[in-house]
Amino acid sequence: MKITQACIEQIAERATLWLSERQKPLMAKRLSEILERLAVIQGVDTLGIQLEHQAGSPENIMRPDTAVPTMAQAPPSKNTPAAKPRSITLTGLTALQIGAKIQAGIFSAVDVAAAVWDGIAEQDRDINAFISHPARKTFLAEAAEIQEQINRGELTSPLAGVPIGIKDNICTTGVATTCASQAMAGFVPPYDATVAERLKKAGMLAAGKLNMDELAMGSTSETSYFGPVRNPWAVDRVPGGSSGGSAAAVAAGLVCCTLGSDTGGSIRQPASHCGVTGFKPSYGTVSRHGLIAYASSLDQIGPLAHDAADCAAIMDVLAGQDAKDSTTLELPSATYLAHLTGDIQGMRIALPEEGLGGGVNEDVVASIRQAAETFRTLGATVEYIRLPCLDYAIPAYYILSTAEASSNLARIDRCRNFGDEVVKRILLGTFVLSAEQHERYYQKARRVRAQISRQFEQVFQAYDAVLMPTSQGTAPLLGAGEDNSLHNYLADMFTVPANLAGLPALTVPAGFDRGGLPIGAQIVGGRLMDGTVLNLGHAFQSVTEYHKKRPVKEASVSER
Amino acid sequence: MNVDPVIGLEIHVELSTQSKAFCSCAVAFGGAPNTRCCPVCCGVPGTLPVLNEKMLEYAVLAGLAFGCEIQSYTRFDRKNYCYPDLPKGYQISQHAHPLCRGGEVAFTLPDGKRETAGICEIHMEEDTAKQSATGIDYNRAGVPLIEIVTGPDFRSAEAVLAFLSHVKSVLEYLEISDCRMQEGSFRVDVNLSIKPSHRETPGTRTEMKNLSSFRAVAAAIEHESQRQIQILESGGQVEQETRRWDETNRCSVPMRTKVDAGDYRYFPEPDIPPIRLTTEYIEGQKAALPEFAPALTARLVADYGIAPTDARIITANKQIATLFESAAKAAKSAQEVARWVTGELMYQLHIQGMTPAELALSPATLAVLADAVTDGIVNRTAAKQVFGYLCSGGTDVMGYIGIHGLGQMSDEAVITAAVEQVLTAHPSVVTAYRDGQTKVFGFFVGEVMQKLDGKGNPAKIRSALQERLGTIH
Fold this sequence. Notes:
By secondary structure, chain A is an alpha/beta fold. Chain A has helices at about 5-15, 25-40, 95-105, 110-125, 135-150, 195-200, 245-250, 270-275, 310-320, 335-340, 360-375, 395-410, 420-435, 440-460, 495-500, 530-545; strands spanning about 130, 165, 205-210, 255-260, 275-280, 300-305, 350, 380-385, 465-470, 505-510, 520-525. Chain A has 2 domains: about 5-35; about 95-550, Amidase signature (AS) enzymes (Alpha-Beta Complex).
């Protein structure tokens, strides 16, 4: 379908979006290109497919009709002066290891905070993983406060005192939350996201807000208003996206764990490119309250860390029903950590052939085959399957995510502040929802989505997990997609199905390409089988070393 | 031109829940701007709506009361449009799967004729913020609404007003809205077109907004019918548009044409899971429906032997009807209670500018007063004074009568003496009476009553007068 400039102007008017003279022909070209790619879903057989409202169709948990006084103010923090920190090194330590050392009194939370703060101050110049981080004095005072609670025996969480980076699309009271967008400049949330609240309750320390693609739209973290994030394994390469800052910060050793958000692969793909472990939970597991929405029916917050055990420990903090998000589910009480037995004897793993050919980089294919072997040696069975939905998940994802985004972003002032990628997606979303196109694009994509869910349901009747690449290749060079807006079109082909079907999916480091860049293997599980997925990753990491490898810091980066 | 207006209504009703539709802010009218709002209803990025269960319950009750079919599957949709009073850039509404479909409402015209109107659907949505000259007030943003959409079933302003009164009464009996038009909790939009009687289908319709009283609805219907007829008679075309009623100048002005209103890009609200209602839930709500005004009127007439006109006055308000029935059960004469409720009570409410809800009068106290009149302890004139005392919070009927000496004078010797004095004082009137001008009898009663400080037993005065006048020749 050819979109003219006049047509773009009409769509922009509907979206109440201001376009520059430069953007008008550019957007006409980009929309025409993408619509050509989206045409493929028209051929998908969706006859007799029952539409579902969203993945897993949660029950609507309502609110009792009680009024509460408005705009409660948070009490001011006490600001405990911190004792002078000892110099320690955290290199190679996981979040659970640091937490254990704090509980054992080997490190104090203040020592850890100082080491992390100084590391960010010194080393983030080269990576640009952080958009903002607290003043040293404040940060250390918070750590001292937590240490006091630990001393009094009030905080026994295995992660108490561990600093964690937070993607800058998650609201934190009184701290600017920018989504790496100029359009969000000046937004200081008056409330904490539920996940931020839960991290605080567990005694974890917010180490700063992480860089990302503008409004989480992108897969390279280059569209940030604060400049691109660089891949710690090769600073001329992108870290992936949109949670590029979250992955790069862990890979560079700036923090041992971070929160990201994943709408179509935004946790897993950068985790893969940066050689870290990233987990997207089942839809409805982690509250979205306080996450600046990209596509509400697909978004899920999740952890990035060095290994699956850290991810499970952070999930124990984050997961659970939230009265402020009616799409969250009541979950079984067993902890995720309790699932990590390392025993996967007899588990059945499916290996889609689509992940081992086509446009997939041969080093990636080799790593996935090797991962399959590893699972076999751990006692699992691995069988080839076909997963045809991989061919049309991307168009369905593009249509649904941009449609929701065009509405979600309406609350953000629409002056001339959005970058091209965001503008493109708002225009596309407005277009597919318009009365004339609604049936052809939006409704069809919903049917395709339901069909994909059904395909996965069938797979999970016979298998416990699907093993496939996270990404077709390894981290591209910075600027590689500049001339071609569709350069990254297929980058998410292996990650979006889990979002469309609301499934849990974990990326674990599984090798390196011939250039030494990390490769991630993706493990997708059945709905709400998050514990199984994390346990598979944990078992894999108990016999592999990829997740323990760290990038060699280049000469420009000063060694501590 | 021989023409009929064809009228359909969209009624927005604010539900009287404690808290808003999707957040815990209080629902109330008035107060300082922006004091009942939070990040959720102000559309702060990252916030999510969580449905108030009472909103659903109230909407189900309304649907059942208007004979709609409550849908077992219902969901919210986003209605996307950009307007300053819409903090999120969309309104959470219902489009594809409204809660209630297809109902029928029977109502009575002032001349007693019965009519029916169809309900197309009733759906739930959130109210918008309020825009004023000084800025935007978010207190109203997120207040729960139901929108009742009727069929194009009305042919006159009279029918519309009768229907609206009926709808208002039902909502008040359900106690789900205070239905105050002037406060905007009951808002009526009128869709009107003209159907020349030789044509099968009505012409182009307009939508009229901002009708803040029944009077305005009637005036707007008259005005818009005439406007459209004039356009058609002069060979013109009615434009499809939304018009705003200007109450001060009593005319309508165009707001926007339907074409620019455009495309709302509806899609399922992803932040609120769909709602599945069980038959048990719906049946449970059905069982909880109250007795509505028409049925109650008939029953009060049958059970208490009061006049139908009185019964209609009593049932116009649920609180008054409840007060009446409780008092009537306790009192010796239901008719006496009805007399007080339809007379002095309505008068007191009117002059004090009170709503029935604000009334302090208890049914038991009202029954005591009615019995005091029935038993001849106090006459009606004096009882009005007692009633005024009760309306301002008093409760001790007999004590008040005692203290203020309002007890009725029934001593025959005293009455006879007073009669004697009056007749002696007015010989010419007595002559007139004897000449057949019996009308002056009332004059004598009044004079005697005055002599007795208004406390005389009227029946005894009458019989004493008749006896005495009968002996004068």
